[in-house]
Amino acid sequence: MTAPITPTLLYLDNVTVSFDGFRALNALSLAIDHAEMRAIIGPNGAGKTTMMDVITGKTQPNEGTALFEGSHDLTALDETAIAELGIGRKFQTPTVFEMHTVEDNLLLALKNKRGPLATLLSRRPAREQERIDALLERVRLTVQRHRRAGELSHGQKQWLEIGMLLAQEPKLLLIDEPAAGMTDQETADTADLLRDIARSKAVIVVEHDMTFVRDLGVKVTCLHEGSVLAEGSLDAVSANERVVEVYLGR
Amino acid sequence: MRTQSLFDRQTTVVLSLLAAAAILVPAMNGLALPGSALHLSDHLVPLLGKYVCFALLALSVDLIWGFCGILSLGHGAFFALGGYAMGMYLMRQIGARGVYSDPVLPDFMVFLNWKELPWFWYGFDWLPFAALMVLLVPGTLAFVFGWFAFRSRVTGVYFSIITQAMTFALMLAFFRNDMGLGGNNGLTDFKEILGFPVQAGSTRIALFVLSVLALAGGYLLCRWVVGSTFGKVLVAVRDAESRTRFLGYRVEHYKLAVFTLSAMLAGVAGALYVPQVGIINPSEFAPANSIEVVIWVAVGGRGTLAGAILGALLVNAGKTWFTAALPEFWLFALGGLFVFVTLFMPRGILGAANDLWERSSQKLRARRSPQPVTQAAE
Amino acid sequence: MRAAAAALTLPPYEVHFMIVLRNFLQAFVLLLGMASAALAGPYEEALLKFTNDSYADTDAAIAAVAVSGNPLAVDVVEALRDGRLLVGLEHVFVRRTSGDLINAATGQTWGNPTGELKSVRVNNRVRRAIEAALGSLTLLSPDAARRLEAARAVFRSRDEAALPALEKAIAQEGHVPVRNALETARAAILLSKQDALHTQKLAAVETLRDRGDQEALALLSNLPSHAPLEVMSAAGKAAEGIRARLAFWQAFQNVWYGISLGSVLLLAAIGLAITFGTMGVINMAHGEMVMLGAYTTFMVQEVIRSYFPGLFGASLLIALPLAFLVAGSVGVLIERAVIRFLYGRPLETLLATWGISLILQQGVRTIFGPTNREVGTPAWMSGALDIGAMSLTYNRIAIVLFAFSVFAILLLVLRYTSLGLYVRAVTQNRRMAGSMGIRTSRIDALAFGLGSGVAGIAGVALSQIDNVSPNLGQSYIIDSFMVVVFGGVGNLWGTLVGAMTLGIANKMLEPHAGAVLGKIALLIAIIVFIQRRPRGLFALKGRAVEA
Question: Quick check: is B378 in a domain?
């Protein structure tokens, strides 16, 4: 086995992003293993979304290293190329294609050739239909398959977006506040779903809802002012004096 | 929005109406006796032909604006370029029959004291070459322009404004005599097309039918594109561009492809337009023209294809009526139309009709099925 | 003298006899030379040549009159220039501008002549002679402006005969600009004078080099072929120097034209920068706001012309607030009636405002007619200021100053008033501003009114340099957009830099590429630029932009 530069799937080192002098990320370092689930917490402005932006190519860091699978330099790639590498992202506010049906949303997300000519001439094989059916089942949207995504409830949109993430068959999933705006039952279901996904894929979850994070039961990283404040189990992190200070204020 | 077969109800309606036009117009012009209520007078044929070309132009705008959210305020430029390519062919057909009877040079070149034909006029005496240029010139411009614009992620109003600047710059350029394309006066005084006199009634009927066929072909092409997965990606780009990117699609390639295709369609519309109106000049590049096309699409209903055709026909018929009956009020009417449609009918005539249809059928379904339909949370 | 005086009193029937007598006298003059001068005097002698109806004689007569030193000489030559020099009855008369007729020889008023009088005809050659003569005649006028005029006339005519008068004038002249003009005139004459001394000619070359304008350049580069080699080479060098100097000033002149165009663009675009910057609204009817301002100026002037003609000089100042109010209230109306329903849909806003622009254009066309309306320029704005080899017209200077003041005032308004604070807050983060209790919709309306009002006062200024027609706005809209988009949205300094860059670049390109090609080149450059920096020169950065 040829050893990659780093054994981890995602490797961020000393990543700094500043907007007009304001440091959104300040020498952030983070490593995620294959098939690891990590919860990221932190107060507003801690740099959680900016970190996702850097990983997915939306924002170029001013300095630092961001490697995927040890060899792909994420800072040199754009969103499309990074998505093709196998990093999927779910946004804070659910963004699905509202005018498309639920089924078409999944179809567009399916791992397929993405070029204009390929999509213009594509025939939909039965195999694809099976994939879609399975995904619909998994995110519990089989009944809604022919409805427009815009007509779904907030929670359903969140799930559709997770379904789209799965359809991409990524190696790493970035999930921004999946429990926001969900009922308790939906939140619990979502946690189940994510734990299920994490069995085969690496997942980074950003979340404010501590009950949800506790449900996940995974290693937690707390960000503050653009860098890592504490890392460990949720209990260890919540016991950390500085974390308490940051969350409760002095 | 279900899986669409190519020949759904809308397509059938559009194609039958176009077929009816292609049969009825020649019949009413040629067979019905002058004076009878059914007779279509000679001057109306090229007028209708003009509308059909505008409809094709509107279709090309709807393809990019309605389905991909690209608002081009410079599509008149592609239309005019296609028109110029055809105009150059028609100029070459004049031969020595110009006012100055020069066997090689068009009149305006003789007038400007030019000695030889500029290189870019070579080949235009051959229709297949000219026809190729009708596609290639607008297509290439759109490709180059789009390549830079989309790659740099110039979107929304910024893109609209630079397309407007593009057509404005082209207008200024074509006004120059040095361009070798007739300057201010453009290309006109055409005599023949493929050996048939341009002014003759039968030629005009043939051109009309050809335009209707082109419109039908353009419609089918757009329908096919929109119905494919490619089309679904376009709509995805329109509604959530960055989401599409995070899914791994090269948005700029999609935009470029559809923009270029659309420019070619506009070029074809321009090429069919020129022999029917008998002139092409730089005023076709005027930014106001391009914006007017957008309102045709908006009136009919953007993103419906059939709406673009409907809007183009309605607004242009209205324009013809107004400019004859109440010339003072045409701009009031047109301006009012812009405001009215954007404020009160954002989905156009077809969109509004569609909404009405869906609402009533939903009610019907709700009455039939006992379980409640979950309402959309806005 | 006495004979002439006697002749004037002769009754008409004796005229024929006088012709015989005059011919005799002329023969006598030829014989006696100076003696004849004593008899009739060179002035009277010259005058009579006007009666011959021959251009050559008239020409000679002008020269002779000019050097005669007679106090009536100026009157005679001016009369000739204006067609008021009359001949008939073998006499020469000057019809004064008052209508009185005087005898050119004596200056006495002459009643109503019974015979027919004809004006002396002039052709181009004679006109040149007249100008030269007037030049040397008025060189000694007590009025400095008149002397300057004369010196320039002599410079243009290069009449050798004026040389003595010129020398005399230079010797007495105390006023520096006039003296300079006199010296360059002398230099011009000396250069073309065949028998002038080398040293004189070299000095002349130097004087002309110091003068350094287009005329001097023309003189130096077209020396007569008889000029000595040494003078030729000196003149060549001097011409080279002048060319360099002129090119230098030409560059400044172009920059000035550029600044002037830039100010026009700034005026047209600055209102757009406010509306686009705060609301992200593309207002296609912005040009029509400018047009409304221009028509307001027209209306104000119409009222002033009919009722308060004395106030005409202040008409523009009166028009400014009115134009602001008219365009501003139309702007607020548009915002309240249409645009506020379209927030978040920029493309629809663009279309709706385009529709409004069509309605406004047609409205103005219906009320005021499709043709250009005349907007006058107050006296204090006409004329020009000369600096070196540049000429700056006062109306352009006024517009440049005005544009910068509007810019400065807007900057202050945005910085120091609460409206400005709110507008900036809404620009940077609409949602946050809203949740802090700023009534964003009211700020939108006010900002839109402000932007439109500024467009209106831009219209007042533009009415001075452009045709006031319903299409006025259309000619500015694309350029204004280019400025705003180039400069970057949400930053007035960007608009300033954008306007000046585009203005100056346009005027620098023009001499090389021509007006149309220059403009095309610039449009292409901007299109390429926007593609490289989609958010303009001075773009807002950070998260707010994405929201």
Answer: no
The answer to whether the CB of C402 falls within 8 A of the CB of C459 is no
Residue C60 near residue C130, CB atoms below 8 Å: no
Mean pLDDT of A69-84: 87
In Å, how far is B70's CA from the nearest CA of chain A? Answer: 17
d(CA B152, CA A116): 19
**Residue B217 belongs to what domain range?**
9-366
pLDDT in tens, B110-149: 888 888 889 999 999 899 999 999 999 999 999 999 998 8
Nearest to C498 by CA among C303, C267, C327: C267
Number of domains in chain B: 1
**C249-546: CATH class:** mainly alpha
The mean pLDDT of A97-107, rounded to a whole number, is: 90
Partner-chain contact B232 A100, CB within 8 Å: yes
Report the run of H or E that residue C218 belongs to, with start and end: helix C214-221
**Does residue B4 belong to any structural domain of this protein?**
no
Chains near A (3 or more Cβ pairs under 8 Å): B, C
Tokens describing residue A136: 């619909």
Question: What's the CA gap between B163 and B158, in Å, rounded?
Answer: 9
All domains of chain A, ordered by start, with CATH?
A: 10-97+169-248 (3.40.50.300)
What value does the mean pLDDT take over residues C56-79?
79
Give which of A99, A148, A164, A176 to mutate to test B binding, by max B Cβ within 10 Å. A99
Cα–Cα dist C54/C121, whole Å: 8
Residue pointed to by tokens 């399916």: A110
Q: How many CB pairs under 8 A join A and B?
A: 93
With beta carbons under 8 A apart, name residues in chain A contacting C542: 19-20, 22
Residue of C350, C478, C532 to mutate, interface with B, max B Cβ within 10 Å: C350
Residue B377 has pLDDT above 80, yes or no: no
Q: Chain B interface, mutation test: which of C519, C531, C535, C546, most B Cβ atoms within 10 Å?
A: C531
Which chains does chain C touch, 3 or more C-beta pairs < 8 A? A, B
3-state secondary structure of C40: helix
Rounded CA gap, C535 and A19, in Å? 16
Question: How many CB atoms are located within 10 Å of the residue C23 CB?
Answer: 10
C541 touches chain A (CB under 8 A): yes
Evaluate whether C289 touches C422 at the Cβ level (below 8 Å). no
Instruction: Find out whether C505 and C457 touch, Cβ atoms under 8 Å.
Output: no
Select from C319, C330, C451, C313 the least CA-distant residue to C377: C313
Q: How far apart (Å, rounded) are the C-alpha atoms in residues C107 and C103?
A: 5
| Range with the largest mean pLDDT of A119-133, A186-200, B338-352, C146-160 | B338-352
Domain for residue B371, yes or no?
no
In SS3 terms, A75-103 reads as HHCCHHHHHHHCEEEECCCCCCCCCCEHH
Q: Which chain C positions have a beta carbon within 8 Å of A22's beta carbon?
A: 542
pLDDT at B369: 56
Q: Using 50, 70 and 90 to split pLDDT, how confident is the model at C75?
A: confident
Q: What angle do CA A117, A121, A123 make, to 5 degrees?
A: 140
Q: Name which of B145, B151, B294 is nearest C351 (Cβ-Cβ).
A: B294
Classify residue A87 by its DSSP letter.
E
Among A52-61, B190-199, B359-368, C229-238, the least confident range: B359-368
Residue C61 in this model has a pLDDT that exceeds 50: yes
CATH 1.10.3470-classified regions of chain C: 249-546
* C485 part of contact set with chain B, CB < 8 Å: yes
Pair C106, C8: CB distance under 8 Å:
yes
Q: What is the DSSP letter of C374?
A: P
**Which among C52, C55, C50 has a CA at the least distance from the CA of C76?**
C50
Are the Cβ atoms of B71 and C350 closer than 8 angstroms?
A: yes
Q: What is the value of ipTM here, to two decimals?
A: 0.87
How far, in whole angstroms, is CA A97 from its chain's centroid? 18
